[in-house]
């Protein structure tokens, strides 16, 4: 059974701080990793994808991947109240399917 | 704008009354997925179509069926909804050739069973 684990939170950070979200996965053969943002009552929105070890930056977001440790993280710099949402980590398995973690709720206070 | 569209956005049905949810896409993606998401839970894959090939997850109840009449449309049929089937149903698409098969979600259909 492939598993993706995330701390459910909530993770509370003040506006302007760096939010750090973490994810571990069980399938050592996984090659593709994604972060989705989901506002309450809405559908998931893809914000980052990462396929190689190291860092990938896109605006205020940085995804980090360490395949040896089976660990993926998402850093959000200069956090804004509008970043308050649940962040879902997803790992691609076989047959183009994703396994999602339960998500970490992020709360950014003004 | 190219997108994934789901109808209806909200559906109320009675216990045991069949219901159909629809998904359409203008992205010309060849893979389409149906997920069930309950409150505070991860999206759970029910099934997906890779082109015309139907792939059912092992733990998807028989009560759930799907049809994909063409590339653009996909339907989720719930033959006899129970109270436990109340959830958000999410349609997603991806395309062979996109790195990692990135999936793009529609807005979802919120199903209530009374």
Tags for this model:
heterodimer; A: six-stranded mixed sheet; five-stranded antiparallel sheet; B: 114 residues; mainly beta; globular
Largest sheet of chain A: 6 strands, mixed
Spatial extent as radius of gyration of chain A: 13 Å
Order of helices and strands of chain A: EEEEEEEEEEE
Helix content of chain A: under 10%
Provide mean pLDDT of chain B, rounded.
93
Instruction: Indicate the mean pLDDT of chain A.
Output: 94
Could you estimate the helical fraction of the residues of chain B in percent?
under 10%
What oligomeric arrangement do these chains adopt? heterodimer
Shape of chain A: globular
Which helices and strands occur, and which strands form pairs?
The complex is a heterodimer of chains A (110) and B (114).
Chain A: E1 4-5, E2 11-14, E3 19-25, E4 33-38, E5 45-50, E6 54-58, E7 61-66, E8 71-76, E9 85-92, E10 98-100, E11 104-109
Parallel strand pairs in A: 2-11
Antiparallel strand pairs in A: 1-3, 3-8, 4-5, 4-9, 6-7, 7-8, 9-10, 9-11
Chain B: E1 4-7, E2 10-13, E3 19-25, E4 31-37, E5 44-50, E6 53-56, E7 64-67, E8 73-78, E9 87-94, E10 104-105, E11 109-113
Parallel strand pairs in B: 2-11
Antiparallel strand pairs in B: 1-3, 3-8, 4-5, 4-9, 5-6, 7-8, 9-10, 9-11
